[in-house]
Specification:
Strand 14 and strand 15 form a beta hairpin. This protein has a four-stranded antiparallel sheet with strand order 3-4-5-6, with no helix packed on it. Strands 9-10-11-12 form a four-stranded antiparallel sheet, with no helix packed on it. Strands 13-14-15-16 form a four-stranded antiparallel sheet, with no helix packed on it. The chain is built from no helices and 18 strands. It is an all-beta fold. 0% of the residues lie in helices and 38% in strands.
Amino acid sequence: VWGGPGRGDGEFGGEFAGYHRGPVDVAVGPDGTVYVADDGNQRFQRFSSDGAFIRAWDAWSCPGTPASVVDPLPPASVHRVLPRGDLVRATVPMTSWASVDLVLAAAPDGTVYGGSAGGIGRFTADGRCLGRFSGHGISPGYLGYPGPYGMDVAPDGDVYIADGEWGRVQRFGPGGEFRGLWYVPDATPLELAFGSDGTVFVP
């Protein structure tokens, strides 16, 4: 067992948005390094394979959070309307109002991706920001509120995100360039993972 509750190096948790939050996602780099999304402290931590603390960095240390967007919606959308008939927003049916945590994934080249609906940061193994992409919105390439439910990196380096609120999986290049999406019929993609042959599994 590694760490414990707290805000120090190698510790997890703390209060965020009124809740006690601990580690919510983990990824293993190609060298065996272990990365942990410490949601309560809004940071990512890096450990050796035997649990020794190496480094931590702020989850939002990549500047330039993308702006939200409002766009035409896919078919089967619904509209939320105030009692007097004023349109508030258009959206696909909500699947959950629960807070979604930080997501984290390690790439074959040793870089690390992490973030939430505010955008996905790309980091070196020691936490240096290499760039940021996506953000909250409806357009292809943007993420539904409250954020992505899962993320993984394919053997070729492309990043796949389970965009559960919009019922779809999105694909990005290593630098964050949008490369496509597909919808998951009658389901909310909550996680995804790659097999050794490059097949992506979406539960």
